Description:
Layout: E1 2-6, H1 11-20, E2 25-30, E3 44-46, H2 52-62, E4 66-69, H3 76-81, H4 83-104, E5 108-113, H5 136-151, E6 155-160, E7 163-164, H6 171-181, E8 184-188, E9 192-193, E10 196-197, H7 198-209, E11 215-218, E12 225-226, H8 227-237, E13 244-248, H9 250-253, H10 281-291
Bound molecules: NADP nicotinamide-adenine-dinucleotide phosphate.
Amino acid sequence: MKILITGISGMLGMDLYETLREEYEVVGLDIKDFPSISLPSPPLRKVDITDGHELRKLFRQLAPDFVIHTAAYTDVDGCERNPDRAHRVNALGTRNIALASQDLGVPLMYVSTDFVFDGKKNYPYAELDEPHPLNVYGKSKLAGENYVRSLGERYFIVRTSWLYGRYGKNFVETILKLAEEKEELTVVDDQVGCPTYTRDLAQKMKKLLSSSSYGIYHITNSGSCSWYGFAQEILKLAGIREVKVIPITSEELARSAPRPQFSVLKSSSSGRGAEDTMRPWEEALKEYLKERKGLKGLED
Ligand SMILES: NC(=O)c1ccc[n+]([C@@H]2O[C@H](COP(=O)([O-])OP(=O)(O)OC[C@H]3O[C@@H](n4cnc5c(N)ncnc54)[C@H](OP(=O)(O)O)[C@@H]3O)[C@@H](O)[C@H]2O)c1
């Protein structure tokens, strides 16, 4: 089976490639080159997903049996400042991918986000809860979901949250870097979600793609925390005791895009393709820190 991964040079795309490459023929597309790492580079076509004509041509040439769509404009505050680009890439780009997949008659797996919810429920969100995004990024990703749902029959929508992984800029790396430079870090304590390791997510997506139980899935590591709690756990597991973390409010941080205060996702997919619970986020984080290049001496 040939799988086409969009956004293959991004954080999740690279972990998906690593997870799938031994069992599947993987081809990728991205707007940028595949970074140089220890893995052999995948066959990669550089294309902008907003170019629907080029995309359809490329899909016909590559003739995949399955498409995983991770490419997106993922800078949440950037989206707020540049709503046109957010809509073009995340909504219309996804429409182009859905149309090109439909043209070939192949199933599509689209990666979406907890930010489609407004966070006012204060209880974990299930797949059928009504989305109501607060920011431009969330709106553009939800518009992408709606195109996927209306343009194809065989689709998976995988909503996930707070991603970190070995191949991208992420919160864990930001905290570790800041901890080298500062004695005190201020971190938001009034947004609660679930940190998710891209490697765990990629493994779950692999399981899902061999099923035919199409639909919407919530896939995250289990448990939840605030960004403040996440930062504390990162420093604790990395053995950094001398840096103090101070909780602040979202209002104090004053970022461009409003964020949901509570965006924990729960899965009610029991009996479908991805029923078993993912390991707790603390366990996944511990493994990530162990695997992370250059970090030594973690306690068990
Ligand atoms: N990161 C999170 O916390 C999070 C949480 C929930 C859901 N998600 C979703 O998960 C997916 C993967 O996220 P990620 O963090 O792995 O993203 P990422 O690292 O930003 O990777 C996305 C990739 O898509 C590429 N891309 C952007 N615009 C493109 C275009 N017009 N045409 C073709 N390629 C384009 C990016 O290139 P550039 O780097 O040059 O832009 C990048 O290589 C996304 O769909 C995101 O919405 C992410």
